[in-house]
Specification:
Blueprint: E1 2-6, E2 9-11, E3 17-24, E4 33-38, E5 45-50, E6 56-58, E7 66-71, E8 76-81, E9 90-96, E10 106-110
Parallel strand pairs: 2-10
Antiparallel strand pairs: 1-3, 3-8, 4-5, 4-9, 5-6, 7-8, 9-10
Length: 112
């Protein structure tokens, strides 16, 4: 299993960013995918998930602002982040729901 996150960067409060996670080494369309994040000095937390059928769930802290989607033909899962806040600053990771592997993560910094 390989997971490669990309799309992070520096964005101003209120801005938007889309993260991508390219997956390989397994049959992507069969598995639910999760997005996690870890802020400095804090535990890694679940941001949201998408089932293999496209059903999504989100943490209360991002509900209404973040959207998870997937493209099974490209074996890629996306995290669209809108109305970003400084407290969204973290390293963002994707993960296959039932496998232990993690990608390297991508840094998102929300600051003016």
């Amino acid at each position: 299993v390989q997971l490669v996150e990309s799309g992070g960067g520096l964005v101003q409060p209120g801005g938007s960013l889309t993260l991508s996670c390219a997956a390989s080494g397994f049959t992507f369309s069969n598995y639910a995918m999760n997005w996690f994040r870890q802020a400095p000095g804090k535990e890694r937390e679940l941001v949201g998930s998408i089932s293999n059928g496209g059903r999504t769930n989100y943490a209360d802290s991002v509900k209404g602002r973040f959207i998870i989607s997937r493209n099974n033909a490209k074996s890629t899962v996306y995290l669209r982040m809108n109305s970003l806040k400084p407290e969204d600053t973290a390293v963002y990771y994707c993960k296959v729901a039932t496998f232990p592997s993690w990608g390297q993560g991508t840094q998102v910094t929300v600051s003016s």
